[in-house]
Write a structure and sequence with these properties.
pyruvate-formate lyase- activating enzyme, 4 iron, 4 sulfur cluster binding, cytoplasm, MiaB_methiolase, 5-stranded mixed beta barrel, Rossmann fold, 6-stranded parallel β-sheet, EC 2.8.4.3, Methylthiotransferase_N, alpha/beta
Length: 441
């Protein structure tokens, strides 16, 4: 065919994994990746709608990308993902240059949509519910950028009803992927040289509950760990309410499960947590952290925090800072509250002024900077196990510790893909500078 594609991805790891699947699908249709959008025959934006800013960015990009039609009238612009699912035809009306639109429900329908668009029709396929043949997507290959670490989607959607979140609307109800389908993909990945498997889901720890014969997420962890070639296992994102003793015990017992976990707290205020309908209290969250520290040991935690949720007071915000201080997160993803259309929180009174959100965000980031600096110092002098993922320059290698810290060291390119033990000579809040002690395997 000789056609080229360009994909721009916004948002979470689920979106990036979807884009890997879309790239693989397009390859099967004969498309090749373009070096830039200017030389593409198909430009695809895989979108996020968790906050307002990505929405606006997508419209801005479409406005820029439509220029391609001046030199290539047959070029197509596609919009996929969560914004497409939420906005539907409203988005096409705002940006008529869009030729194709679909959501995460129906990625597998892209070949038919391309045929429609090439015939001159608007190919818009936004569904109310996931189609019965949604699992066809697993038949298509992935095209990954990282040869040693791979994301594997194990569950789609979310049954939680957090009042600020659009995921149940844009990604649908929880749909667990069949165990054998997951394990088959993991086997193929390890045969292809992958050493680290990262299990993905909007609520990954809910995996298995909706299967015809229900299974527990811990059973998936054990099953993946038994596959030859799996050296490391990570999973994202779990809900604190679903993190139970069985999962924590599996994390402690399975050698391949990394001692790092992303556990979104969102707020430290019980009043705000109740308004968010998170289903736990500050004290229950801290108890889960305590259990993890006792059983898993030396576990690195990261989290999400929303600043300025409706009616948030100074006292509420101080409770959030208290959680950050007590837990000592290795990384925080913090966001100012952004009302999402159709969510209960968007209709709540008591909006926090923008200047107050900005001031509180500044204080949160300042505290986190101090916490990360203190944690970094603790790494100095320790020996860490690191999977080397890439070579930068002539003799610089980069990889990640089991605690998900980026580490840099001197070494030859022949070590890329190896697991090494390295001593941390110097640490900053975001990087470790190491010296290799030995090659493990």
């Amino acid at each position: 065919m000789g056609k080229k594609f360009f994909i721009k991805t916004f948002g979470c790891q689920m979106n990036f994994n979807d884009s890997e699947r879309i790239r693989g699908l397009l390859r099967t249709l004969g498309y090749e990746p373009a070096r830039s959008w200017e030389e593409a025959d198909l430009i695809l934006l895989n979108t996020c709608t968790v906050r307002d800013k990505p929405d606006r960015k997508v419209l801005s990009h479409v406005g820029e990308y439509k220029k391609i039609k001046e030199k290539n009238p047959d070029a197509l612009i596609a919009v996929a993902g969560c914004l497409a699912q939420r906005a539907g035809w409203e988005l096409v009306q705002k940006a008529p240059a869009i030729d194709i639109m679909f959501s995460s429900f129906n990625i597998h329908q892209l070949p038919e949509l391309l045929n429609q668009a090439q015939a001159g029709y608007k190919a818009i396929a936004i569904l109310e519910d996931p189609p019965e043949d949604e699992e066809r997507i697993w038949d298509y290959p992935l095209e990954r950028e990282n040869p040693y670490c791979a994301y594997v989607t194990v569950i789609k959607g979310c049954d939680k009803r957090c009042t600020y979140c659009v995921v149940p609307r844009t990604r649908g109800r929880e749909r667990s992927r069949r165990l054998e389908s997951i394990l088959e993909e993991v086997r193929k990945l390890t045969e292809d040289g992958v050493r680290e498997i990262h299990l993905l889901g909007q609520n990954v720890t809910a995996w298995g509950r909706d299967l015809e014969k229900p299974l527990h997420f811990s059973e998936l962890l054990y099953a993946v760990s038994r596959i030859e070639g799996v050296e490391r296992i990570r999973f994202t994102t779990g809900h604190p309410k679903d993190l139970d003793d069985e999962i924590i015990s599996a994390m402690a017992e399975i050698p391949q499960v990394c001692n790092a976990l992303h556990l979104p707290v969102q707020s430290g205020s019980n009043r705000i947590l109740a308004l968010m309908e998170r289903g736990y209290t500050k004290e229950e969250y801290l108890e889960k952290v305590d259990q993890l520290r006792k059983k898993v040991g030396n576990i690195a935690l990261s989290t999400d925090i929303i600043v300025g949720f409706p009616t948030e007071t100074e006292e509420d915000f101080e409770d959030t800072l208290d959680v950050v201080e007590k837990v000592g997160f290795e990384q925080i993803f913090s966001f100012k509250f952004s009302p999402r259309p159709g969510t209960p929180a968007a209709r709540m009174e008591g909006a926090v002024p923008e200047e107050t959100k900005t001031e509180r965000m500044s204080r949160l980031l300042e505290l986190q900077k101090r916490v990360m600096s203190e944690l970094a110092i603790r790494y100095e002098g320790t020996v860490q196990e690191i999977l080397l993922e890439e070579s930068r320059g002539e003799d610089t290698l980069v990889g990640r510790t089991t605690t998900n810290r980026w580490a840099e060291m001197k070494g030859g390119e022949d070590l890329v893909g190896k697991i090494v033990r390295a001593r941390v000579e110097r640490a900053t809040p975001f990087n470790l500078f190491c010296e290799i002690v030995e090659v493990v395997r």
